[in-house]
């Protein structure tokens, strides 16, 4: 991963072939003391696991894909979960046929590139386990 630009307000990142989105973003935020952020991105993936929130199950139904797809839209945030930076991101992905699929990103391995603009937010955002959904939701503190 390359830092293209790093200002007080935002950072532009470029992920390279074979790098995993969650691992790179969470580590970057941990190393740089970023405890709250919002990001968008575009790029391409070669392998990923995406989920669909299943409230009855209090978790996610997830599916693995091993094919090259365009990341047509990547949107997410960084907050603290158990005191560590945690990525929550959703994405839409285009197959070679131009059909779209999308969902909650568990893991996403980059192929050609992934260009991310991460906007740093003040202070920190926190997540707490929520009984009703079974998910770790943003909470006011
Ligand atoms: Zn989600």
Explain what this protein looks like in three dimensions.
The structure is a single chain. With 141 residues, this protein is mainly beta. It contains one helix and nine strands, in the order E-E-H-E-E-E-E-E-E-E. The protein has one helix at residues 21-31; strands at residues 2-6, 10-15, 37-54, 59-65, 69-81, 84-94, 100-120, 126-129, 136-139. The strands form two sheets. Strands 1, 2, 3, 4, 5, 6 and 7 form a seven-stranded antiparallel beta sheet that branches. A two-stranded antiparallel ribbon has the order 8-9. A hairpin with a 3-residue loop joins strand 1 and strand 2 (10-15). The N and C termini lie far apart (33 Å). The site of zinc ion has 3 residues, from strand 6.
Q: How do the helices and strands line up, and which of them pair or pack?
A:
Blueprint: E1 2-6, E2 10-15, H1 21-31, E3 37-54, E4 59-65, E5 69-81, E6 84-94, E7 100-120, E8 126-129, E9 136-139
Antiparallel strand pairs: 1-2, 2-7, 3-4, 3-5, 3-7, 5-6, 6-7, 8-9
The structure holds zinc ion.
Low-confidence stretches: none
What kind of sheet is the major sheet? 7 strands, antiparallel
* Small ligands present: zinc ion
H/I helix tally: 1
Oligomer: single chain
- Count of β-strands: 9
Mean pLDDT: 97
Percent in helix: under 10%
């Amino acid at each position: 991963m390359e830092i293209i630009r790093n200002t007080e307000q935002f950072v532009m990142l470029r992920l390279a072939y074979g790098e995993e989105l969650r691992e790179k973003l969470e580590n970057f935020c941990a190393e740089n003391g970023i405890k709250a952020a919002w990001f968008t991105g575009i790029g391409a993936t070669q392998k990923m696991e995406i989920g669909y929130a299943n409230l009855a199950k209090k978790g996610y139904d997830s599916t693995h894909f091993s094919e090259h797809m365009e990341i047509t839209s990547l949107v997410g945030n960084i907050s603290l979960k158990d005191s560590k930076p945690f990525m929550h991101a959703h994405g839409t992905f285009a197959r070679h046929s131009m059909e779209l699929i999308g969902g909650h990103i568990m893991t996403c391995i980059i192929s050609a590139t992934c260009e991310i603009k991460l906007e740093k937010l003040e202070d920190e955002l926190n997540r707490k386990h929520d009984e009703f959904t079974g998910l770790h939701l943003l909470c006011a503190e």
